[in-house]
Amino acid sequence: MAAPAPLAVTCGDPAGIGPELAARIAADGPPAPMAWIGDPRHLPGGTRWQVVDHPAQAVPEGTLAVLPLPFAATAQPGQPTPENAAGTIAAIERAVALVQGGDCSAVVTAPINKKALKDGAGFAFPGHTEFLAHLAGDADVVMMLACPELRVVPATIHIALADVPGVLTPDLLARTIEITHAALKRDFGLTEPRLAVAGLNPHAGEGGAMGREELDFIAPLIARYRDAGMRIAGPLPADTMFHAAARARYDAAICMYHDQALIPIKTVDFAGGVNVTLGLPFIRTSPDHGTAYDIAGQGVADPTSMRAAMAMAWEMAASRR
């Protein structure tokens, strides 16, 4: 079987740390073949780069393969330029087109700043995930955060904690479980994935004494999947789900809200977490950090998460094949 096609790596916000991370990873030796989509003017001085006509075109070791995409303006690290917003969006669109056309095996996105894109180009999406779902024909997607020791999937994401009980419906939880289960099989090579589902309330509601969501729909939904043959446990008290012995009993944890999922993974592996969009017809990963304007251009950005995102995308592509 042939190896997967190269990764399509977007530049992200050119005023952030995306360009310097790509340059450093290429110089040190990337974990997978890659082609960077962006404007070479935004790369750090001294970067070894070479324009390629096709993502699979070979370049010398230590050289960044560049699929050039001219932007409207140069970039000043730490200072987003509205004129460059359209270019940032176009880089994402080109990466998706390359994967959909079979020239690349996965999309790896460098961080963007949603406000900068809205101000500069009227970007109408809350973030990368929603835009990628749109480009995929309005696919039903969920967000996974993953590292070697833990995978977590929040059912609700960027909403106020007070809004979670109203947004967390049986249908939403069911879709989250089903998308996660299918992705673990297709993208991570697990023939019988094991899921653990957290409760919403302290002590998973403690029999209704601390909330009824577990009794009213979370436990019945889990029982339905278990009766259908899925290996799924819960609802479990979230405060006992994430120590080492507990993590060994499942392949992914379904959590009810943002911090319930992200606090444990950032505690377990703060630098190496990867954001994975599940449910897309193509593979997409990204580092679990933002544009880091405060350190952009200083050469001190940690490439660990970006490198892990590339490695995970490559492994997922191999699993799909």
Outline the secondary-structure elements.
Layout: E1 7-10, H1 18-28, E2 34-38, E3 49-51, E4 64-68, H2 85-100, E5 106-108, H3 114-121, H4 128-135, E6 142-147, E7 150-154, H5 164-167, H6 170-188, E8 194-198, H7 213-227, E9 231-236, H8 244-247, E10 252-255, H9 258-268, E11 274-278, E12 284-287, H10 304-320
Parallel strand pairs: 1-2, 1-5, 2-4, 3-4, 5-12, 7-10, 8-9, 8-10
Antiparallel strand pairs: 6-7, 6-11, 11-12
Helix pairs in contact: 2-3
Principal-axis shape equals: globular
Strand order of the largest sheet: 3-4-2-1-5-12-11-6-7-10-8-9
CATH topology of the largest domain: Isopropylmalate Dehydrogenase
Oligomer type: single chain
Helix count equals 10
CATH class annotation of the largest domain: Alpha Beta
**Total separate domains:** 2
The radius of gyration over CA amounts to 20 Å
Q: How many distinct beta strands?
A: 12
Largest sheet, in brief, is: 12 strands, mixed
Order of helices and strands: EHEEEHEHHEEHHEHEHEHEEH
What structural class is derived from the secondary structure elements?
A: alpha/beta
Which regions have little confidence, pLDDT < 50, spanning 5+ residues?
A: none
